[in-house]
Design a protein that fits this description.
The N terminus and C terminus are likely disordered. This protein is mostly helical. It has four helices and no strands. It has one domain. The termini are far apart.
């Protein structure tokens, strides 16, 4: 029986192996791209958490509206800058060109939740500014000029700001949990043991 070189079979097998390797390489590269971008946001959040703790300590030490108001306004400015950076990360995550269907699903979910968190931080910024305005107004009003109408308005404005803060706290906790869950799912899919924030450590 004459020997026939299975060239077609070898070429087909070689093509299949090359396709498999390319697919693996592509998935790995896409995973790296997505996780690296997510890590940018996590680093921003971790950095801002330190500033939040400093703010909480400063407001705890301040005892009067005159002392608290500038601290609150300064923190609102810091939060606004942070939120702008976070919005940039959300846009960057959403604009990544990923081909893997599972990764594009994770990408969309993560970007949407990050934008939700971004919106909540925007609400928080406004609530802090509103509270700062109330405290500044109280601090700048001589006691003999405080009328029942003014006191009533300050109380109403303060309660409104406090309600916004409470809502943001609850909703941001939910958004953060969702973000953490998506990050865990990305790590599982990409074969990473660490969380997305620790993937490069």
């Amino acid at each position: 029986m004459p020997f026939h070189c299975p060239r077609a079979a070898i070429v087909a097998a070689g093509s299949a192996i090359a396709l498999l390797l390319t697919s693996c390489d592509t998935k790995t590269a896409q995973c790296d791209s997505l996780i690296d971008t997510i890590n940018e946001g996590i680093e921003l959040i971790e950095d801002f958490e330190g500033k939040s703790q400093t703010f909480e300590a400063a407001t705890a030490d301040a005892k009067t509206p005159k002392a608290i108001a500038p601290i609150m306004n300064d923190f609102a400015n810091e939060l606004e800058l942070f939120n702008e950076d976070l919005a940039g990360v959300a846009d960057e995550v959403g604009s990544l060109e990923l081909k893997d269907e599972s990764l594009t699903g994770f990408q969309q979910q993560y970007s949407e939740n990050l934008k939700q968190l971004n919106g909540l931080f925007g609400t928080l910024t406004q609530a802090l500014r509103d509270m700062g305005t109330v405290l500044t107004s109280i601090a700048n009003t001589p006691p003999n000029q405080i009328t029942p109408d003014k006191a009533q308005k300050w109380t109403a404005d303060a309660k409104k700001a406090e309600a916004s803060l409470a809502t943001v706290e609850t909703d941001s906790d939910k958004a953060t949990q969702a973000i953490d869950q998506i990050a865990d799912e990305i790590n599982t899919y990409c074969g990473r043991e660490a969380s997305a924030g620790e993937a490069d450590e």
